[in-house]
Amino acid sequence: MAGKLTAAQGTGILLVTANVGSLFEDPENLQKTWLREFYQTVQSHKPHFLAVHCQEVGGKNYEESMSHVDSFVKELLSSDAMKEYSRARVYLDENYKSQEHFTALGSFYFIHESLKNIHQFDFKAKKFKKVVGKETCSETLESTPSLEKEKFPQDYFPECKWSRKGFIRTRWALADCAFDLVNIHLFHDASNLVAWEKSPSVYSGTRQKALGYVLDRITDQRYEKVPYFVFGDFNFRLDSKQVIESLCSTATMQTVRAADTNEVDKLIFRESDNDRKVVLQLEKKLFNYVNQDVFRENNGTSLLEFDKELSMFKDRLHELEISFPPSYPYSEDSNQGKQYMNTRCPAWCDRILMSSSARDLVLKPVFLSFRITAGAGKPNANKHKCCVVQ
Length: 390
What we know:
It is a single chain. β17 and β18 form a beta hairpin. With about 400 residues, the protein is α+β, with helices and mostly antiparallel strands. The chain has a 7-stranded mixed beta sheet, with no helix packed on it. Strands 5, 6, 8, 9, 10, 11 and 16 form a 7-stranded mixed beta sheet that branches. The chain has helices at about 25-45, 60-80, 190-195, 200-220, 240-245, 295, and strands spanning about 10-20, 50-55, 85-90, 105-110, 120, 125-130, 135, 150, 165-175, 175-185, 230-235, 250-255, 265-270, 280-285, 285-290, 350-355, 360-365, 365-370. The longest helix is centred in the first third of the chain and has 19 residues, at about 25-45. The protein has a single domain (about 15-235, about 290-365), classed as Endonuclease/exonuclease/phosphatase (Deoxyribonuclease I, Chain A, 4-Layer Sandwich).
């Protein structure tokens, strides 16, 4: 949507998701590049309401990166590119000393000065309150009434080892419509070799269980049900066993075992002829495929048949056609921004999903832009019940 939207056109909304962990490890290069691209996206779409869901805020060494997080937030709130956004809410989970609560999630919401009437839900008081000014909340988000934050129960974590995974939910009302925005971070694949063992992988099952937990929580009986958008780092992966069998269909496999444990250490796939050229080398944290172009050509659509994790939720979650290449794992070298790292099989980890009542949208790469029509589909004029977007 180019140009500034008017009231007649509807309220412009832009949803963005980004795993920003690496930005805080290289603030001088990666962070500045990311912010420049982000500002250009905002200027291009000129949304009235902007939601940015971040995961891994602070990176791997959160305590050391706190100053970088602070400067990142200050830059977003005070930059010239965002000066027309007169109201903001920033929620940062900074309680890194509490393993049972820390998720490293960050949710940013910006409201344009032209949007006169927007309310946010108070989950404690169970009512909407008008949004005024700019506020930043951190530390113990569990007690913040304007959101719900949960880390997954410990028995959901692989081997019951804590990691920074969970969700943050906020609820908003504008243009006579109410909707939930859920920032989510699901479990990753710890080992390429384990992911290869069976189809679907054990990691896929763990993510399925966690996502089901989130959907049950945001649609339970505690609050009125409204349309919802769940966007973040789902860590969805291609079916590893099936995609490798497809990529290496004419290759022979060599298994290399560790001398001390006899456990599989690596798998090497070689062409049957052509001097037995190595097609793929697979290790716990290595996925070295001979031709990365297959993941970029035509946005990698030839591999979408192996993107199956969302199919388990086809009755509860919807997604528009994917028209961008796999979002992970891009190189963290700012000079090789279009290259994938040789650590994991490229996959569409970062997604924007929605309930049935919120699916008629316009999708853009790793962000979502759409217009919401005032009062459309509203069954009760006195309630923020339902929204239909067009």
